[in-house]
Write a structure and sequence with these properties.
Layout: E1 13-20, E2 27-35, E3 40-49, E4 52-55, E5 66-69, E6 72-76, E7 91-97, E8 104-109, E9 113-118, E10 124-131, H1 142-155, E11 167-168, E12 172-173, E13 177-185, E14 190-193, E15 199-206, E16 212-219, E17 228-234, E18 239-257, E19 260-266, E20 278-283, E21 286-291, E22 296-297, E23 313-315, E24 322-328, E25 331-337, E26 343-345, E27 352-359, E28 362-368, E29 375-379, E30 386-388, E31 406-407, E32 410-411, E33 417-418, E34 420-423, E35 434-440, H2 454-461, E36 465-469, H3 479-482, H4 491-506, E37 510-520, H5 522-531, E38 539-543, H6 549-553, H7 559-567, H8 571-580, E39 594-599, H9 608-619, E40 624-629, H10 636-639, H11 642-660
């Protein structure tokens, strides 16, 4: 078998954004692939019908869309090259018949549009960004507009912040920017706002008759809170009714359920930010809890072989509740959740379901099965039988050594069974000695599973044992398991070191003197923590990490609420507790050669986190190196530019080779 090569991922294809027609007879979805010449990704739409799949677009810049009817798609595209006008955003939409012909320009909207749906009367409801710090140039003409544009351009030399969060990972400066709902009339180009200028809409949906819009959001100034409210807008009358004030729940979604409103959300009173959601009725301005099944909605199964997303939950047909992706231990599965509190599993307990759509008894999903990459599947809801409908990645790994994860569960110091796996090196010979790498997931409320992970498979092909596990703090096993607030670096560290001991015991072919450790985000935090608490690792690679909870809490997009929640402290009520949980405190104990990988636009874990730890190690004479990626953010390993992802893997692999081989 040939080895996995570092650049193999550039030949993978990534599926996302699955949408069925209203009758469920066909579906469209996006397929992305690397374009090394442009150091970017090409994205086009494909169609599924019972007869098979076929490509619909070829411009390479189409990813999002909606169905106008059962045979026509509407999508934004930049195929018509126009001069960009600073301060005057525009989204141009095209319609395309699946029966053939070229895409036709439908209309242009003077907004950066993130979602759109047709109404019955030919108008559209859409979500678009409102920049409240920018003048409304569309309302100006002549000399007045020229002067306003000149003033706006001059203002770009300055960044003014007056609220938190003021930036967003992957979104840049967000100060005074909101996702707002509008009704757009293509006939005369009018935009009618449905939500206030300072309200940010997180979720919205149309009722089946397209007569009402249900949405969740929060209006704020100065500081964004974590709870949100729910409203319904009646299209025919223009009336807007508040269903739930924005003080009770952190809402995932709100759904029409006959004449009632079903909410998916969390109070966060018992387990803080990471508390799993429950189902609620929205009654008389109150959220009445129906059931709290302690299930994690959405897939948190890690892989570096996805781009884009899609639906994680949808209303069930015939008013049965919601269908949702649930992270279940080390996999993600589809399930029906009913208001009666029952959970009916629809897919098998393996791999991952990455997104799905469902109309009646027609259910399709994009997922990863075995050690295969993403494909489109149909699901028979009566039998649970899954049928693979595509072969986008069938040849991508053909003839390659793809290590099958060897399960290695173990009991931690408290007697709790934890899940772990080991990848055997290519050409494994038990009589030889091998280096090994411990890989730690992010989150911390995510999981590793058995799906294909390119970086790990690369290292296994390069002659490494690779081992990984799901310590406490991870997802898929309920709120109590995920709750490590105030315990960072304590119980999770014990789990990781206990697993390392178990792996070395089970696989004596691993040379204990040549073991490395790496991880990103929370995994980067733990890498920083580990090198300050043990010298057992011969090399480390800390990626997009946290080193100091105090600085992380007050420089990043989520820090002001994430850091106090996770450390159970603030600098004003318990500075020592935050500092005790910060890896930087223990940098004077470090001896492990450490590589730091970070991005200059990572606003989730700001680059100061890597700079502090790197500098501290240099001060104390520890061999260290920092590679800072320009123009990348927290998602470098998953959706960074192809050449940057190649460089990242070369940096880490080269560092491990240098110190472990």
């Amino acid at each position: 078998m040939n080895p996995i090569e570092l650049t193999d991922f550039t030949g993978f294809r990534f599926l996302s954004g699955l949408r069925l027609t209203e009758d469920g007879s066909r579906a469209a979805f996006a397929v992305q692939e690397s374009d090394l010449d442009k150091n970017a990704y090409r994205s086009d739409l494909w169609l599924w019908e019972p007869e098979g799949v076929r490509r619909l677009t070829s411009s390479g810049d189409v990813r999002s869309f909606c169905w106008l009817d059962g045979e026509t798609l509407l999508f934004p595209s930049g195929r018509e090259k126009k001069e960009e006008k600073p301060g005057e955003p525009e989204t141009v939409f095209y319609s395309l018949s699946i029966r053939g012909g070229e895409a036709v320009k439908a209309f242009a909207v003077p907004l950066a549009v993130s979602g759109i749906r047709p109404l019955k009367d030919g108008r559209f409801v859409l979500a678009g960004e409102q920049d409240n710090a920018r003048p409304d140039f569309s309302a100006l003409t002549g000399e007045e507009k020229v002067k306003a544009l000149e003033g706006y351009k001059e203002e770009q030399d300055y960044t003014v912040l007056d609220e938190i969060p003021f930036w967003s990972n992957g979104g840049g400066i967000t100060n005074k920017k909101r996702s707002r709902l509008w009704i757009f009339s293509p006939g005369d180009g009018t935009l009618t706002p449905l939500t206030p200028p300072l309200m940010s809409v997180d979720y919205w949906e149309l009722d089946p008759a397209r007569e009402r819009i249900l949405y969740c959001g929060l209006e704020y100034e100065n500081r964004m809170e974590l709870t949100s409210g729910a409203w319904v807008y009646t299209i025919s009358t223009g009336a807007c009714q508040e269903l739930l004030p924005p003080e009770q729940l952190s809402l995932y979604s709100a759904h029409f359920y006959g004449e009632r409103i079903l909410l998916l959300g969390s109070e966060g009173k018992r387990f803080g930010l990471n508390e799993n959601p429950g189902l609620y009725w929205c009654e008389n301005g109150r959220a009445e809890l129906i059931c709290a099944p302690d299930l994690s909605v959405g897939s948190s199964v890690g892989s570096d072989c996805r781009l884009g997303g899609g639906w994680s939950f949808r209303p069930c047909p015939e008013g049965l509740g919601i269908t949702a992706i649930i992270t279940d231990r080390a996999c993600s599965r589809l399930a029906d959740l009913t208001p009666e509190g029952t959970c009916t599993w629809l897919t098998l307990p393996e791999g991952s379901v990455d997104c799905f759509d469902r109309v009646g008894q027609v259910c399709l999903f994009i997922g990863m099965r075995g050690q295969g990459l993403q494909e489109l599947y149909s699901l028979n809801l009566s039998t649970g039988e899954e049928t693979c409908l595509t072969s986008f990645n069938q040849e991508a790994l053909a003839g390659k050594y793809v290590a099958v994860p060897q399960p290695l569960s173990f009991r931690n110091e408290d007697g709790l069974e934890l899940d772990g796996w080991v990848l055997l090196p290519r050409g494994y010979d038990p009589a030889r000695q091998y280096p090994a790498i411990l890989d730690i997931h992010g989150g911390p409320k995510t999981v590793y599973g058995t799906v294909y992970y390119h970086e790990m498979q690369l290292w296994a092909s390069q002659g490494y044992f690779v081992f990984y596990c799901n310590p406490r703090g991870g997802d898929g096993r309920g709120d109590a398991f995920a709750d490590i607030r105030g315990k960072y670096g304590a119980i999770d560290y014990a789990d990781l070191m206990g697993f390392t001991d178990r792996v070395l015991e089970a696989y004596p072919a691993i040379d204990a003197r040549r073991v490395g450790v790496t991880g990103g985000s929370y995994g980067g935090f733990m890498t920083n923590w580990i090198i300050g608490h043990t010298d057992r690792f011969a090399a480390a690679a800390s990626q997009r990490s946290i080193s100091n909870w105090i600085s992380m809490g007050y420089t990043t997009d989520i820090g002001y609420y994430f850091a106090p929640d996770q450390t159970a402290a603030t600098p004003w009520d318990n500075l020592e507790r935050m500092w005790d949980q910060s890896p930087l405190k223990y940098a004077d104990r470090c001896v492990t050669p450490t590589l730091f990988i970070h991005s200059d636009q990572d606003y989730r874990c700001w680059q100061a986190e890597a700079l502090q730890m790197f500098t501290a190690l240099k001060v104390h004479g520890v061999e260290s190196r920092l590679c800072l990626f320009k123009g990348e953010n927290h998602e470098l390993s998953r959706s960074g530019k192809p050449k940057h992802r190649i460089r990242r893997l070369r940096e880490i692999t080269g560092w491990m080779d240098r110190h472990l081989k």
